[in-house]
User: What shape does this take?
Amino acid sequence: MMTSRRHYIFPTLLLSTILLSPTHAADFCVADLTTQTTSGYTCKNPTNVTADDFVFTALVHSGNTSNTNKASAVPGFVQQFPGLNGLGLAVARADIEPGGAIPLHSHPAATEMIYVAEGSITAGFISGASNVVYVRKLNKGEVMVFPRGLFHFQVNTGKEHAVGIASFSDEEPGVQLVSLAIFGNDFPSFFVEKTTNIDEAEVKKLKVLLGGSG
Assistant: This one.
Protein backbone atom coordinates (compact mmCIF):
# COMPACT_ATOMS: atom_id res chain seq x y z
CA MET A 1 0.00 0.00 0.00
CA MET A 2 2.81 2.39 0.87
CA THR A 3 4.42 1.92 -2.54
CA SER A 4 1.21 2.49 -4.48
CA ARG A 5 0.38 5.56 -2.43
CA ARG A 6 3.75 7.15 -3.19
CA HIS A 7 3.25 6.30 -6.84
CA TYR A 8 -0.08 8.14 -6.74
CA ILE A 9 1.21 11.23 -4.94
CA PHE A 10 4.30 11.76 -7.12
CA PRO A 11 2.59 12.48 -10.44
CA THR A 12 0.10 14.73 -8.66
CA LEU A 13 2.91 16.82 -7.17
CA LEU A 14 4.72 16.84 -10.51
CA LEU A 15 1.63 18.10 -12.32
CA SER A 16 1.15 20.85 -9.73
CA THR A 17 4.77 21.90 -10.11
CA ILE A 18 4.41 22.15 -13.89
CA LEU A 19 1.20 24.13 -13.72
CA LEU A 20 2.58 26.58 -11.18
CA SER A 21 6.07 26.97 -12.64
CA PRO A 22 7.10 30.27 -14.28
CA THR A 23 7.64 28.57 -17.65
CA HIS A 24 3.96 27.70 -17.83
CA ALA A 25 3.19 31.41 -18.26
CA ALA A 26 5.47 31.56 -21.30
CA ASP A 27 3.05 29.81 -23.65
CA PHE A 28 2.44 33.14 -25.41
CA CYS A 29 4.20 36.46 -25.89
CA VAL A 30 1.83 39.30 -26.65
CA ALA A 31 3.86 41.95 -28.47
CA ASP A 32 4.86 45.11 -26.67
CA LEU A 33 4.67 47.35 -29.72
CA THR A 34 6.68 50.06 -28.00
CA THR A 35 9.79 47.88 -27.79
CA GLN A 36 11.28 46.11 -30.81
CA THR A 37 14.65 44.40 -31.17
CA THR A 38 16.42 42.86 -34.15
CA SER A 39 14.72 39.56 -33.31
CA GLY A 40 11.22 41.01 -32.99
CA TYR A 41 8.97 42.52 -30.37
CA THR A 42 9.50 41.98 -26.68
CA CYS A 43 6.72 40.51 -24.57
CA LYS A 44 4.05 42.61 -22.95
CA ASN A 45 4.02 42.30 -19.16
CA PRO A 46 1.74 39.26 -18.50
CA THR A 47 -0.08 41.16 -15.77
CA ASN A 48 -1.22 43.67 -18.41
CA VAL A 49 -2.42 41.05 -20.91
CA THR A 50 -6.19 40.79 -21.44
CA ALA A 51 -8.50 38.76 -23.66
CA ASP A 52 -8.64 41.72 -26.05
CA ASP A 53 -4.99 41.08 -26.97
CA PHE A 54 -6.11 37.84 -28.61
CA VAL A 55 -9.06 39.27 -30.54
CA PHE A 56 -8.95 41.23 -33.82
CA THR A 57 -12.12 42.99 -34.93
CA ALA A 58 -10.92 45.07 -37.91
CA LEU A 59 -11.98 42.43 -40.46
CA VAL A 60 -15.65 42.91 -39.61
CA HIS A 61 -15.96 45.99 -41.82
CA SER A 62 -15.03 46.41 -45.47
CA GLY A 63 -12.09 48.61 -46.38
CA ASN A 64 -12.12 51.77 -48.48
CA THR A 65 -12.19 50.85 -52.17
CA SER A 66 -12.46 54.44 -53.44
CA ASN A 67 -9.04 54.43 -55.08
CA THR A 68 -7.34 53.73 -58.40
CA ASN A 69 -7.23 49.98 -57.75
CA LYS A 70 -10.88 49.85 -56.60
CA ALA A 71 -9.67 47.59 -53.80
CA SER A 72 -8.47 47.62 -50.23
CA ALA A 73 -6.48 45.36 -47.93
CA VAL A 74 -6.90 45.43 -44.15
CA PRO A 75 -3.94 43.66 -42.49
CA GLY A 76 -4.03 41.80 -39.22
CA PHE A 77 -0.29 41.44 -38.78
CA VAL A 78 1.49 41.57 -35.43
CA GLN A 79 1.59 45.37 -35.59
CA GLN A 80 -2.21 45.47 -35.63
CA PHE A 81 -2.83 42.24 -33.70
CA PRO A 82 -0.19 41.94 -30.91
CA GLY A 83 -1.46 38.56 -29.72
CA LEU A 84 0.00 36.97 -32.87
CA ASN A 85 3.55 37.66 -31.70
CA GLY A 86 5.65 34.50 -32.02
CA LEU A 87 2.76 32.35 -33.24
CA GLY A 88 3.74 32.24 -36.93
CA LEU A 89 0.48 33.33 -38.52
CA ALA A 90 -1.41 36.46 -39.58
CA VAL A 91 -4.62 37.44 -41.32
CA ALA A 92 -5.99 40.08 -43.69
CA ARG A 93 -9.17 41.10 -45.48
CA ALA A 94 -9.32 42.12 -49.14
CA ASP A 95 -12.29 44.00 -50.59
CA ILE A 96 -12.37 44.29 -54.37
CA GLU A 97 -14.99 46.04 -56.47
CA PRO A 98 -15.87 44.74 -59.98
CA GLY A 99 -12.94 45.53 -62.23
CA GLY A 100 -10.68 46.21 -59.25
CA ALA A 101 -7.48 44.45 -58.26
CA ILE A 102 -4.95 43.84 -55.54
CA PRO A 103 -1.81 44.62 -57.60
CA LEU A 104 1.05 42.23 -58.21
CA HIS A 105 2.97 41.86 -54.96
CA SER A 106 4.89 39.43 -52.78
CA HIS A 107 5.25 38.52 -49.11
CA PRO A 108 8.96 37.82 -48.53
CA ALA A 109 8.41 36.10 -45.17
CA ALA A 110 5.23 34.10 -45.64
CA THR A 111 3.05 31.81 -47.70
CA GLU A 112 -0.46 33.20 -48.21
CA MET A 113 -3.77 31.37 -48.47
CA ILE A 114 -6.92 33.21 -49.50
CA TYR A 115 -10.52 32.17 -48.90
CA VAL A 116 -13.27 33.79 -50.98
CA ALA A 117 -15.99 34.88 -48.58
CA GLU A 118 -18.12 36.86 -51.02
CA GLY A 119 -18.35 37.10 -54.80
CA SER A 120 -15.62 35.68 -56.99
CA ILE A 121 -11.94 36.49 -57.43
CA THR A 122 -9.53 35.60 -60.20
CA ALA A 123 -6.14 35.04 -58.61
CA GLY A 124 -2.75 33.83 -59.63
CA PHE A 125 0.97 33.70 -58.99
CA ILE A 126 4.20 33.48 -60.99
CA SER A 127 6.60 30.61 -60.38
CA GLY A 128 10.08 31.80 -59.53
CA ALA A 129 11.70 28.64 -60.88
CA SER A 130 9.91 28.29 -64.24
CA ASN A 131 8.28 31.72 -64.74
CA VAL A 132 4.99 29.92 -65.33
CA VAL A 133 1.82 31.82 -64.37
CA TYR A 134 -0.85 29.89 -62.47
CA VAL A 135 -4.26 31.58 -62.68
CA ARG A 136 -7.65 30.41 -61.44
CA LYS A 137 -11.10 31.92 -60.93
CA LEU A 138 -12.20 31.31 -57.35
CA ASN A 139 -15.85 31.23 -56.40
CA LYS A 140 -17.32 31.76 -52.94
CA GLY A 141 -15.99 29.17 -50.50
CA GLU A 142 -12.92 28.26 -52.56
CA VAL A 143 -9.31 28.64 -51.42
CA MET A 144 -6.00 29.24 -53.20
CA VAL A 145 -2.47 29.25 -51.85
CA PHE A 146 0.44 31.46 -52.96
CA PRO A 147 3.89 30.07 -52.07
CA ARG A 148 6.19 32.21 -49.98
CA GLY A 149 7.90 35.10 -51.72
CA LEU A 150 6.26 34.63 -55.15
CA PHE A 151 4.55 37.46 -57.00
CA HIS A 152 0.77 37.10 -56.93
CA PHE A 153 -2.42 39.08 -57.50
CA GLN A 154 -6.18 39.08 -57.07
CA VAL A 155 -8.66 40.61 -59.56
CA ASN A 156 -12.43 40.91 -59.36
CA THR A 157 -13.57 39.78 -62.80
CA GLY A 158 -17.14 39.32 -61.60
CA LYS A 159 -20.09 41.69 -61.38
CA GLU A 160 -20.40 42.04 -57.59
CA HIS A 161 -18.32 43.13 -54.64
CA ALA A 162 -15.81 40.45 -53.64
CA VAL A 163 -14.27 39.72 -50.26
CA GLY A 164 -11.25 37.54 -49.60
CA ILE A 165 -9.94 36.51 -46.20
CA ALA A 166 -6.22 35.74 -46.30
CA SER A 167 -4.06 33.89 -43.81
CA PHE A 168 -0.25 33.95 -43.66
CA SER A 169 2.41 31.63 -42.27
CA ASP A 170 4.19 34.39 -40.35
CA GLU A 171 3.00 37.19 -38.07
CA GLU A 172 5.09 39.65 -40.11
CA PRO A 173 4.65 38.52 -43.74
CA GLY A 174 6.06 41.70 -45.22
CA VAL A 175 4.65 43.06 -48.47
CA GLN A 176 6.25 44.54 -51.57
CA LEU A 177 4.17 45.94 -54.42
CA VAL A 178 5.98 45.55 -57.73
CA SER A 179 4.78 48.87 -59.17
CA LEU A 180 5.74 50.87 -56.08
CA ALA A 181 9.09 49.12 -55.78
CA ILE A 182 9.99 50.32 -59.28
CA PHE A 183 8.11 53.57 -59.78
CA GLY A 184 7.06 54.74 -56.31
CA ASN A 185 10.46 55.86 -54.97
CA ASP A 186 13.61 57.73 -56.01
CA PHE A 187 15.02 54.90 -58.15
CA PRO A 188 16.66 57.02 -60.92
CA SER A 189 14.64 56.92 -64.14
CA PHE A 190 17.78 56.22 -66.18
CA PHE A 191 18.43 52.99 -64.30
CA VAL A 192 14.77 51.99 -64.34
CA GLU A 193 14.84 52.32 -68.13
CA LYS A 194 18.06 50.31 -68.45
CA THR A 195 16.94 47.52 -66.10
CA THR A 196 13.34 47.18 -67.35
CA ASN A 197 13.60 48.21 -71.04
CA ILE A 198 10.72 50.62 -70.48
CA ASP A 199 11.03 53.91 -72.37
CA GLU A 200 12.28 56.73 -70.10
CA ALA A 201 9.28 58.94 -70.94
CA GLU A 202 6.96 56.16 -69.80
CA VAL A 203 9.05 55.63 -66.69
CA LYS A 204 8.71 59.29 -65.75
CA LYS A 205 4.96 59.14 -66.43
CA LEU A 206 4.56 56.16 -64.11
CA LYS A 207 6.69 57.83 -61.45
CA VAL A 208 4.36 60.82 -61.46
CA LEU A 209 1.35 58.52 -61.22
CA LEU A 210 2.77 56.49 -58.33
CA GLY A 211 4.48 59.28 -56.40
CA GLY A 212 8.07 58.51 -57.36
CA SER A 213 10.88 60.87 -58.29
CA GLY A 214 14.21 60.86 -60.07
Remarks:
- The chain has three domains: 2-48, 55-174, 180-210.
- Residues 115 and 143 are 5 Å apart (CA to CA).
- Helices lie at 2-20, 178-183, 189-196, 200-210.
